Amino acid sequence: MISSQNFRVASSNKILPGSAQPLGMPTRPVPGLGANEAPGFDGSDLLEHQMKQMFRDVGIPVLPSQLIAKPQDLKRLSLPYPIVLKSQVHGGVRDVAGGLAKVTNPIDAIATSHRLFDTEIRGAYPAALLAEAFYTADCHIGLRIDTRPEQCQLILRGWRSAPAQKAAQPADEHHTCKVVLNKDAFSLAEARHLGEQLGLQGASLETLVSILEKMHVLLEWLDMRTLTISPLALAADGSAMALDGRIRFTETALERQPQLKKLFSSKPETGSPLVQLEGNIGILSNSMGLAMTTVDSLKRGGGRAAAFVSVQEPQNSVAQPATRRARLQLRDRQARLNQALENLARLKTVKLILINWTGLTGSCQEVAETIVSYFYLANQHVHLRGRSQPVPLVVRLAGKDAKVGRSLLREVGIVAVESLEEAIAEGIGLAKVRKVA
């Protein structure tokens, strides 16, 4: 069972070394959701520690934790053992595919952290690890607040399970307790009614009501459409701890909440600055010289660059086994390439992105796989860039495994060619017929 002492520490606004800083409460209330707003966008691109910082800012209790950027950070850990190490990956994946481990001492922690950093989860390596205090609980509760602006409703849902089940959302509606109320008037009485339906009483019931109230504050503060805490670990003495959750924001949340825009753009640096020009085609290459050559070739072909950026090849000077060094370089290259694409896609003047990648080092197949992954995400989250449709890509690949890489790109509808001349011709043609979305 989690001790009440641990809960008091976790529910305070104290930030341990290496953890995220508070977002800061708004200076004025956030306007309510409009009746005609779009369904919004998923917050799964947030890392777990970022989401839990939101919980902490409104007083929802979370476990003491510390962000681990590299295994050596565990030597300065402020938490007592045992702890749980959790891979921090985008996409809402928390504890699947070997991304979570309990450790009982510093030696095991460092060894386990090396394994977790080297474990790929759904096509990505962890951006960091979250070291979190270990816990046990008597039961797990799942809570969700869902706004239905078109029906002027606020829906409270709850479900209960044994700790081993991690309060996963029930497979069907019959296992879910549900309370519907006017969306502008959160009701403590209805929140208490939901808790009673879940079989809670006494201190446990009052704790649940308090957490539902704070969830509603957070939902309105940051323009959320849906907020889920699952599981919420609940102890017999009424202590509770939010262990994980899920967020869905309204369509206009990024426009009205600058702190959110900061979170969604907090990705690794590309290795070189983005240089803006006055055209309509974004240029991305894997060296500055190649990028500038591409800009000049584009101009000679009748096109103009809106901006260019080079993705510098990652360097790793630390003496490590060849296999681990290769994995780290691949992870670094993927992060730099993704961020460079994102930076170009967010420029309103960019109608198209032209990628000129020569494969001087590394595999063109790996580069193509990263571009394909980005392409899928761009289609899912196009609203994050303030566009109605994703920016099209034209890719020139030359070098090791270039033929395989081009084939992968063409399979998903990305224009992929062998020569720079072909890429420029395709890019100029597509940019001319495409309006800025």
What does this structure look like?
- The chain has 437 residues and is of the alpha+beta class.
- The chain has 3 domains: 4-30 and 42-133, Dna Ligase, domain 1; 139-252, ATP-grasp fold, B domain (D-amino Acid Aminotransferase, Chain A, domain 1, 2-Layer Sandwich); 275-433, 3-Layer(aba) Sandwich (Rossmann fold).
- 34% of the residues lie in helices and 21% in strands.
- Strands 1, 6, 7, 8, 9, 10 and 11 form a 7-stranded antiparallel β-sheet that branches.
- The longest helix is centred in the C-terminal third of the chain and has 24 residues, at 322-345.
- Residues 1-38, 165-175, 266-270 and 315-322 have low confidence and may be disordered.
Based on CA atoms alone, the radius of gyration comes out at 24 Å
Mean pLDDT: 77
Outline the low-pLDDT stretches: 1-38, 165-175, 266-270, 315-322
Q: What's the number of structural domains? A: 3
CATH architecture of the largest domain: 3-Layer(aba) Sandwich
Distance between the termini: 53 Å
